[in-house]
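Shipment paperwork, digital attachment
Item: protein structure file
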Amino acid sequence: MLQPIYSAAKEHMQRCVEALKHDFSTLRTGRVSAKIIESIKIDYFGASTPINALGSLTTPDANTIVITPWDKSTLKEIEKAINLANIGVNPSNNGAGVILSFPPMTQEQRKESAKHAKAMAEKAKVAARNVRQEANNKIKKLEKEKQITEDESKKAHETVQKLTDETIGHIDKYLADKEADILKI
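Attachment content:
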């Protein structure tokens, strides 16, 4: 009776951690990542298409992303979309692809990025706590309906708290790793 509640809570908390990992992948560290621009959409024959569906994204060095579209007629649209996305870099079109040269991050930018990572981690922690609250409410309902005893209810709350503590521990670990990665010069 309680196992489905535990399973659902664990699954939702794992999703919180996965969402955090995805959010962290969009942050810039010392080395630029193509994930920074993957969310940019281009109007391609009337459809809003992600930039990574129009060509290959490569990072030849720590500060450069090269977008090589399969259809060269999209170069202007890609340039326009990147300018509109306001990601802090001006695209240059060499006729075969679009080159994004990011300047090295300053210490101030690194601190700002680390602060943004903390905000993302806090958001994930809040989501995990919301999952805990939802599971605890289901347990209380079962106890109120006399489907479980008071002792079973207390143990169930402890189990859910243990799951929450584990999840928050994972979030803290990923945050510490990401901060170290961001602040490393």
